[in-house]
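input
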Amino acid sequence: MSQAIRQHAEQAFEAEIEALKQVDTYPKPPNWQLSPWAVLQYLMGGTLENGFELEPKYIGNSRVIEIAIATLATDRALLLLGVPGTAKTWVAEHLTAAISGDSTLLVQGTAGTPEEAIRYSWNYAQLLSKGPNREALVPSPIMRAMELGKIGRVEELTRLPADVQDTLITLLSEKMLPIPELEDEVMAQQGFNLIATANDRDKGVNDLSSALRRRFNTVILPLPATLEEEVDIVSTRVSSIGKMLQLPTEAPAVDEIKRLVTIFRELRGGKSLDGSTRLKSPSSTLSTAEAISVAIQGISLASHFGDGTLKAKDLAGGLVGAIVKEPDADQMVLKEYLETVVKERGDWKDLYRAVKEIL
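output
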């Protein structure tokens, strides 16, 4: 029997949600399956009073998550904003899983996303045979969220064309979606709200109008504040993804993860961690999400073409691929970093050699 590569959050963490339901005695907003208190515990992790262990979904300042949850308990939509790789999509998915028990009511924003993806479309066979009627109408994920009183999601809001973005204004202001073809409307049920994500680093982004921006409460998800925090995030996610992909390897070596994260933070920040060396930054964003991808690729190499232990040579290929996006300029940045920083660190000689072999 085939198995899905990736489960939805409410499936993968069903046991945690059920354990929280058993101990959750706090007031719940209309149509929420968990109280705001329980949603916070689910996101931040910890040990429940019955001894059940919750895996942390977000590692960082809990106040950020508290504000996001409190926003969703009001009639105001939530915009998660941040640079690429700050777990915006991950947080949005887990918030909807914990609140609505359904994270699938999703619209993925692209430059080609049509207005119908937000509103509704039509089954044209039904439309031609019977004319406009409710049976011929195909609801969008957002329309279904309104009808069911659940949380809908819009990923990469600023990638949507401006006219498609503006479709959300009436929906968020009036909590109603008109269907002029049927002289009808869909009224949002209690529990409905919207989570959108956006970043300000991509090229070709469509800025939000002030009218639409006012409909959202914006919560900025920051990059990890410290090296230790980012290492913790990468290690946790890599371990989880490795189990999901059934990679036959040991747990990733924390020392290798720390070196990887150090490189990303130094190049991202334009200076060495001790502040002694100024560095040029590459064109790539070098996000935490990219560090996770590099580590997973390294583990795959170590599993299938090594001894199962993550080493510098396993990280080197993914590291170069993540940093060098524009070959000429980024290659020079990486070479300079190797010679001025990596080469000077006595215990980094293996990484220096491994990257030099690829460059």
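quick obs: The domain at 9-220 is CATH 3.40.50.300 (Rossmann fold).
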